[in-house]
Write a structure and sequence with these properties.
By secondary structure, the chain is α+β, with helices and mostly antiparallel strands. It has two domains: 114 residues, 2,3-Dihydroxybiphenyl 1,2-Dioxygenase, domain 1 (Roll); 115 residues, 2,3-Dihydroxybiphenyl 1,2-Dioxygenase, domain 1. The chain has four helices and 16 strands. This is VOC family protein.
């Protein structure tokens, strides 16, 4: 885990292409989701682009940090937080995804005057978004409790999937040299922005490969207790890692995410 961009406040510059710039969750119960995440992270909510269906922006101390949208009643997909990666040309990036063996499931399409987006999946089937910013640049605050801190792909084998993302977004890929850890860190301009973890047979069969969003918290153990009190679930108990203290959880509808207290957090 490391900073997604800048520090606690961001300037008006757009994210560099390939940088995770937004996270979004599609749910069945919008009101319940807002109550859960609002209580857990201190988020307030503002309306999003109306022509994309019911959608709200999560706001932390006046800064946009994430989005939550309403799934159609007949859609029964595994719920998951989805990272969006910045692009200067979403149409070209979407075409590159297809050329590299991925799939584009939604778009590219305009999100009002906010920007242009596509939703795609990689070679392994993990879903991610592509965002070409206009009025809405993306997540406006990082490194504080309640904000996204890191995005990590959980997949069977990291190397082939890492090549896919390298070709699509131009990452510099840095493998972790370890006999018992299959991990690649994705860099933009020498800065780590995301990770790919190969977990082999440990990958959940009911989920398949998927991206995991880590949200910064002031106290992982206290936040885990709060998750359970709010109707969520603990999936992995807190543990200390070189990057910080981490716990894996699920919200009441089953969407998984991780709590992290990183060493550089200002919260």
């Amino acid at each position: 885990m490391t900073e997604a961009r800048g520090s606690a406040g961001r300037d008006s510059a757009a994210y560099a292409p390939g940088t995770p710039c937004w996270v979004s969750l599609m749910v069945h119960g919008m009101t319940a989701a807002q109550e859960f995440y609002g209580a857990l992270f201190g988020w307030k909510f503002e309306p999003g682009a109306p022509h994309l269906g019911p959608y709200v922006r999560a706001v932390l101390d006046g800064h946009d940090v994430a989005g939550i949208g309403q799934l159609p009643p007949d859609r029964h997909l595994p719920l998951a937080w989805t990272p969006y990666f910045a692009s200067d040309d979403v149409d070209l990036t979407a075409e590159t995804v297809r050329h590299c063996g991925g799939t584009v499931g939604v778009g590219p399409l305009d999100a009002s005057d906010a920007g242009r987006l596509a939703i795609a999946s990689d070679l392994s089937g993990a879903v991610f978004g592509i965002w070409q910013a206009a009025a809405h640049l993306g997540t406006e605050i990082t490194e504080v409790p309640g904000a996204p801190a890191w995005n990590e792909l959980l997949t069977r084998d990291s190397s082939s999937v890492a090549r896919f993302y390298q070709h699509v977004f131009g990452y510099e890929v840095e493998p972790v040299v370890s006999a018992d850890l299959d991990y690649n860190t994705l860099h933009i301009e020498g800065r780590p922005v995301a990770g790919i973890r190969g977990v082999g047979a440990a990958l959940p069969r009911d989920r398949g490969p998927h991206w995991m969003t880590y949200f910064e918290v002031a106290d992982v153990d206290a936040s885990l207790t709060h998750v359970i009190e709010l109707g969520g679930h603990a999936l992995k108990t807190p543990r200390d890692t070189p990057r910080g203290r981490i716990a894996k959880v699920a919200d009441p509808e089953g969407a998984t995410f991780s709590l992290v207290r990183t060493s550089h957090s200002s919260g």
